[in-house]
Amino acid sequence: LDPSSQTEDLGDDSMLASEYGIKNLKRVVPNIAEWTFVEGKEYEEQEDLYNQVFGQFRRYMGHVVANIGGVIEINTTQDQDKATYTHIDRNKQIRALTFLDKHLFETPTWLINQDLARRFEADGIVERISGLHERTLVQIFNFDRMNRMSENESLNGQQAFTVFDLYDDTREMIMSKNSRSVYNRNLQRLYVDRLAKIIGSAKKEAHISDIKAGARGTLFTIYNSLKGNKKMDSMGRMHVLDLKQRIGKVLEMED
Q1: HEC-encoded secondary structure of 3-70
Q2: Is residue 23 part of a domain?
Q3: Residue 174 domain-assigned?
Q4: 104 is a domain residue
Q5: Which of 64, 140, 178, 189 has the fewest Cβ atoms surrounding its Cβ within 10 A?
Q6: How far apart are CA 100 and CA 140, in angstroms?
Q7: At a CB cut-off of 8 Å and minimum separation 6, what does 49 contact?
Q8: pTM
């Protein structure tokens, strides 16, 4: 709810603090093997430190997400005549989403250390990145979060970062990515599936607010924009067909 009171979050700007944190993690990853080397030992310590890097990166993403639809809580008394709850301003929420696009939706390739990972797992790199994507999308499109965004719009109008803004911006960020990357294809599937789950939700707030309408409209826009072309490789064309089938199935059920 309040991005200014999160565990392990330093300062009053989650994006700036997380930017510094990521710079430090980028220094750690290339040195894990050297720093944990003990002759004759297996790779438990390397695996543990690598997992800790992913865990810390995941926390940074969570700190940033909290700014989207976030509300600052300040303890007040009646004689102060001040609001206890204040919505995060529009520009800061846009900064948070832009940060997520830069550091997460754009594949964090610095996290992908195949030489290191192959020492303790036969596969899992793709799953690790997709797990980060999925967790963050679930956090972003949380019903409580989007309800606060609708409340913000009702109070502050065009000064608010709205649910429709969230749908539009994430669609442009995610669906514009090059489908030649397996990470991007998985991200786009996760995004489409997340919107489908919103549409299929039985939650009351999904039916009486802009949440469900926004998800449906976004899928409709994506569906109409999906086009295969001769320049695409076979995987790209199959990806387009897959997305159209997923979206079409959801929209057909809505008719």
Answers
A1: CCCCCCCCCCCHHHHHHHHHHHHHHHHHHHHHHCCCCCCCCHHHHHHHHHHHHHHHHHHHHHHCCCCC
A2: yes
A3: yes
A4: yes
A5: 178
A6: 10
A7: 28, 32, 35, 36
A8: 0.89
Examine the domain organization and report whether 43 and 132 are in the same domain.
Answer: yes
Domain boundaries, position 241: 162-255
Sign of CA dihedral 134, 136, 141, 145: positive
- DSSP string covering 90-110: HHHHHHHHHHHIIIIIS--GG
Higher confidence at residue 44 or residue 172? 172
**Cα separation of 130 and 37, whole Å?**
29
Phi, psi dihedral angles at 178 (to 5 degrees):
-65, 125
Mean pLDDT of the chain: 88
In this structure, the answer to whether residues 213 and 133 fall within a common structural domain is: no
> For the chain, what is the domain count?
2
Clarify whether residues 127 and 216 are in a common domain: no
Give residue 87's identity as a one-letter amino acid code: H
Q: Are residues 78 and 110 in the same domain?
A: yes
Sole residue written with tokens 């998800």: 215
Residue 73 has pLDDT above 80, yes or no: no
